[in-house]
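Supplementary notes for students who missed Thursday's class. We covered one full example, reproduced here. Read the sequence, then the structure, then the short commentary at the end.
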Amino acid sequence: YYVVVFGGAKLISHTVLPDTRGQAGVGYSHIEAMEARGDIAGALAAWEAVLAADPNAVAARMHAADLYAHKGTDHARAAAIFKVIQTHPKANAEVQRYASQRLIDLYFGPLNDEGRAMVEMRKLIERWPDTTEAKFAREALANIKKHEKHERHE
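Structure (token representation):
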């Protein structure tokens, strides 16, 4: 069941992540340069400064959460940021769905909380029932239930 959920998030990550390069008034290239140099701690501190200064910086939130999730060590912080993005009024539906998927990935992965992952999948299905992401979530839930039922009978 991991493949369905993880695959879904990775599939859309390249298409819905806000790209702030070249946007007037958004200067994150210096933070992205820190990341490229491998200064993850410095980049995370810089993203946190942006988040503290601008509660509407959705793109910065997404970048920070993804960095925490992929290269940082504070997966709980990544989850907290993704939770904010899920309902942020400045985040469009695609970005909110992406945040939901990444949150599910974290719960199944490093946060090791299958119960929370399943709750988040149900929320995603309820909120966006006719989307590809909901289809993947339904399939993943069905596979989990099938797997659990199979384990109980062994």
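Commentary. The CA atoms of residues 67 and 104 lie 16 Å apart. The mean pLDDT is 84. If anything here is unclear, bring it to office hours.
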